[in-house]
Amino acid sequence: MKMAHKKALSQMIAAAALAGASTCALAADTIKIALAGPVTGPVAQYGDMQFIGAKMAIEQINKAGGVNGSQLEGVVFDDACDPKQAVAVANRIVNEGISFVVGHLCSSSTQPASDIYEEEGILMITAASTSPEITERGYQMIFRTIGLDSLQGPTAGNYIAQQVKPSKVAVIHDKQQYGEGIATAVRDVLTEAGIEVPVFEGITAGDKDFSALIAKLRQEGVDFVYYGGYHPELGLILRQAAEQGLDVGFMGPEGVGNTDISAIAGEASEGLLVTLPKAFDQDPANAHLVEAFQAKNEDPSGAFVFPAYAAVQVIADGIKLADSTDTEAVAEALRSNSFETPTGTLAFDEKGDLKDFNFVVYEWHADATKTAMTE
Amino acid sequence: MAMPESLYYFIQQLINGLTVGSTYALIAIGYTMVYGIIGMINFAHGEIYMIGSYIAFIVIAALAMFGIESVPLIIVAAFAISMMVTSAYGYSIERVAYRPLRGGNRLIPLISAIGMSIFLQNLVRIAQGSRDIAMPTMISGGVDIGPHEGFHATLSYMQMIIFVVTLITMFGLTLFISRSRMGRACRACAEDLKMTNLLGINTNGIIALTFVIGAALAAIAGVLLGMYYGVINPYIGFMAGLKAFTAAVLGGIGSIPGAVLGGLLLGVTEAITAGYFSSEYKDVVAFALLILILLFRPSGILGRPEVEKV
Amino acid sequence: MMRANLKPAIISAVVVAVLAGLLLGIRLDQQGTTLSLVGAGPDVYWKIGAAAAFLFFFNLFRDQLSALWKGLPGLPKAPQKLVEVSHKPALRRLFWCFMIAAAIIWPFLSNRGGTDLGTLVLIYVMLGLGLNIVVGLAGLLDLGYVGFYAVGAYGYALMAMYFDVGFWTGLLIAGLLAALFGFLLGFPVLRLRGDYLAIVTLGFGEIIRILLNNMTWLTNGPNGIGGIPKPTLFGLEFSRRASEGMQSFHEFVGISYSSEHRIIFLYLLALLLVLITLFVINRLLRMPIGRAWEALREDEIACRALGINPTAVKLSAFTIGATFAGFAGCFFAARQGFISPESFTFIESAIILAIVVLGGMGSQVGVILAAIIMTILPEMAREFDEYRMLLFGLMMVLMMIWRPQGLLPMSRPHLELRT
């Protein structure tokens, strides 16, 4: 009786597994690309940016005849930006026999997932994870089409030191790999430039009440605040700072630069400085793509839309150049060629990073528009 | 004025702490009332608070769409509708998930409540999306305490509203419990459920009433905090519920003044920790305080010591 | 009879329609910086209407339905028989042998995904068995069990990171460390009773998680620890390229490399750990200490009168339970290769507790069955990914209403005075 239970159960699992396998049984003429990132969770809108960019690229490439006669197919996996789920997603991608991944989004998810991809010989290109550590482990299969925190931090730090010239700066971060990484880089640049950083403190992501922190900043008499992290927390900090009368300049990385920060902070988001990748949707060369996005009622202005587009295109071009879907050959092709993409001419170095990527400082406005402050 | 800056800094942190603490207290009362009567931890209570916030946002957005701009009217409508809806949720939850389980092992309703909490959180996530929903500040401005030059404490009008509403609610509830007929029935149930039933009081009705009152108070907290922070998402209920529950135990679970005291104490402790030490550790200190108090006063600050029954 | 039910039927239908209509039927929509309302699609309204109609008819015909339900020879009866069967020692032994054999064969019949899932099930079985000692046998409500799981996982990960400790040494250290934590934490709190104990353990669980999150210098904070070494088999590694001075399994045996070897090895290792856990617990249960746990759960005052030291007995249950969580944590860290404080949230404690209660507190077969169900159900529901957790929550509530005593309640002869 008990055995029957167990057997029925194992049959059930086997059936479920088979069902999973059959949906991904490879038709000879499709190449699957896993799109991994947050579909749910508090930073899902960044995942959206990545997904619409990658899906558009897949659509356009397929329309132009596909890759070596094969069509591309994007499969979305949700990691909710949670490292544990990212590992589970990576294992599922391995199980389903997919060899190309565009993702993940959060550096803290990308890092553990990339261990698995490297081990299993799956080629991964992230369009959003900016932590330097990801490509610093000598991996062969890991690439990215976005700049590094180690570039973004100094860009921000130098701008503060040379253009804003404050006397006391508070550097706040959310303790996550991305936020703390950039914050540390900014602090180092500022201290080197002789600017005092009396407050360097972590907050807990997901917190709602920052009144105690803001009172502390007011008491310390800081006249500029840099925040390393994402928009939900900075939005609340801006809002509560305005209410408590802390009237100083704020700056953040590209993780704060989306319309939600204005929705949360309202007027308080006016004048916020943000480092962002160049606004690729403003580039006249990309006008036809912008139109294609708008035709689908999608917003092409998100920071990761075009890098994700580029990531898919680079994979497609790599497969064409290597004339095979063998990931080692494709990885080799990526390293030894340069690629024309909507984000410019991309070339990868030995580590898998872009040889050249620029961040631009923007001033944010309360109506969620932005103006460039640097070239 | 010769008061030193550090004093104003302390006052400011005290104000911040009391604001947060008031809302902990409002949610904690719900826990404490349910526990006092049926001895059950209603883990889904935090989610009721979250739902209250969502309903308030929906009401406010709806009124704005109809072109109604009178702030007092909007706030009153938000309170009224949100309290009504959450009361209905509180009642339904008790009816569906807890009443069939009453009287058995006390772990059973606890698991059911945790399940209910997961269910409600995901229901809202699916219906409303997991993104933060933000609302512009409705009541801005405040008064400064202290010198105009240098550091001074500020007390915003919104914070004042939170204090006042919390105080009114607590007095109202205390009056209700101590004076009204139904309040007396509630106290009787807390004393001895079986006996009260034998005396001809509809205990099922009283228990349902407890859930309804608790849910309405959670809605008040939800509306207030929703307007104060201006941002909600489906996950806010869990941590708020956990903190409020901690506050209820801190003050002595089952005691309404205890819940209020526990809430305020917890809020102030967090603010002081964040203000003088680091905001990273405020949750650690909050839980450590709870453990310390329970070690020296095993039934909370105002709780009655448990009598061992053979 | 139907007329009596008409009023509650109408009320419940209307309440559902209003409650669901407000929260599900209207969506808050954030377009740029403005907040507006949009109606959900017509399908949502249909669903709400259907739910209201269902409740209306359910309440209207509830008497007939419950009569029908009672008439059914339902599932609830079957387990009772099983329990009786399992009391015959010979059959019992045979049954266990079958179970173990089936568990060993499983990875060779299943594919990679199935084996991986099997490993996850075994981790939860281990956790469930450990918590079963504390909650099911000793009757102490522990809501912070995940804290010890975290101590075990981080114990091994940190040891591996700083001192290059291997899996087997790490397993031992993790178990001891978790036991030490259990002992130290248990010492002051165990004099608290019932729900106070529950909240204090919950607090401890949260403190451990927050500390792991904040002690960035030691634990790498929210970023977690990666690159945790995988278990080895007598010094053989399961990887494509063996590290310096090591040999890999496929080279040693002389077969070509396949990443499935490691998955199967991990599964078998987990199975071994579960069997050890089962063996140890079953021995303990027959010792005076095991009897004391159960006696204490039934009546603490009587125990004290009989000269049993309640604190020592509780402490032993707490410590031993924590040890198994430590083992499970260490194995989890090794399997995952990456851990972060996110994996040790309160919800994890709740799931483990749900396994124990669902299984029928105290019953080990029940715990195993419940662990299988609780792990596999959400995985099967991956198809409707979005509704996964919703269904999970609903299932917890319905299970408690349907079978509050658990799937396979522990049965022991007992006499009760009717009062």
Automatic annotation (TrEMBL), chain A:
Keyword set includes Oxidoreductase: no
Keywords tagged on the record: Amino-acid transport, Signal, Transport
Residues annotated as domain Leucine-binding protein: 30-365
GO biological process, one term: amino acid transport
Cross-referenced CDD domains: PBP1_ABC_LIVBP-like
Keyword hit for Disulfide bond: no
Top-level taxon in the UniProt lineage: Bacteria
Pfam families, per the entry: Peripla_BP_6
PANTHER family xrefs: LEU/ILE/VAL-BINDING ABC TRANSPORTER SUBUNIT, LEUCINE-SPECIFIC-BINDING PROTEIN
Family per record: Belongs to the leucine-binding protein family.
Protein name, UniProt field: Leucine ABC transporter subunit substrate-binding protein LivK
